[in-house]
Amino acid sequence: MPAGQVRYDNLTPAVKKVVFRSRSREENPRWTNFHEYYGFTPFYCEPGLRGAHEKGGVEGQVGYFRRNYLTPVPQVDTLEELNARLAESEAKEDERRIGARMRTIAQDFAREAGHLLPLPDDPFATGITLTPRVDRYGVITVKMCRYSVPVRFIDRKVTVTLTCDDLTVYTAGGRSPGTGGWPVVAPNTSCWTITWKPC
């Protein structure tokens, strides 16, 4: 994990507002929680042409990688397969030199590795928690998608944890998430994990 300041463009998930004529930013609260959890400080580039020189060759290298390894778009069956292919592509780049640099990418990384911080034992929880009410049909609405829950919870609020790949629904009596497909009821709890979105 990088230590100290990490340079960022004014990406929308992180920056809600650029404070006029300054380096200050009004940050997305989730982004603030994220960088505080991992212990680094974002340094934001100037917006527009004023900050073009501050980004180095990062955008050019992103374009290089996309043209060489992601064009045409890889056809894969799983996210794990895609990640494995990307890891192979990165390994091929270890011996490449960027521009007129003396050292290879792998050599530069080896010099920097000692300055990196270890990752925390637990990853940052990226999910969001919501409390929808179960309607008279036994359905909750989460981010414009509708999900069925047991009818005994009609007209009650349930707690939902939403991540990029699943949605867990539980009541005050059920604290441990179920596993597998939906619906899953963990023993002695009121909890279900939904692994697909029936919109």
Structure in words:
The chain has 199 residues and is α+β, with helices and mostly antiparallel strands. 23% of the residues lie in helices and 19% in strands. Residues 175-190 have low confidence and may be disordered. The protein is extended. It has helices spanning 29-38, 58-69, 79-93, 105-113, and strands at 5-8, 15-18, 25-27, 41-44, 128-130, 139-142, 145-148, 159-162, 167-170, 191-194. It has a four-stranded antiparallel sheet with strand order 5-8-9-10, with no helix packed on it.
- Main β-sheet description: 4 strands, antiparallel
Span of the ends, CA to CA:
38 Å
Radius of gyration: 22 Å
Mean of residue pLDDT? 82
Per the principal axes of the C-alpha atoms, what is the gross shape?
extended
What percentage of amino acids are in beta strands?
15-25%
Give the H and E element order: EEEHEHHHEEEEEE
Helix content estimate = 10-25%
Major sheet strand order? 5-8-9-10
Count helical runs: 4
Structural class: alpha+beta
- DSSP, total strands: 10
In terms of per-residue confidence, which ranges show pLDDT below 50 for 5 or more consecutive residues? Answer: 175-190
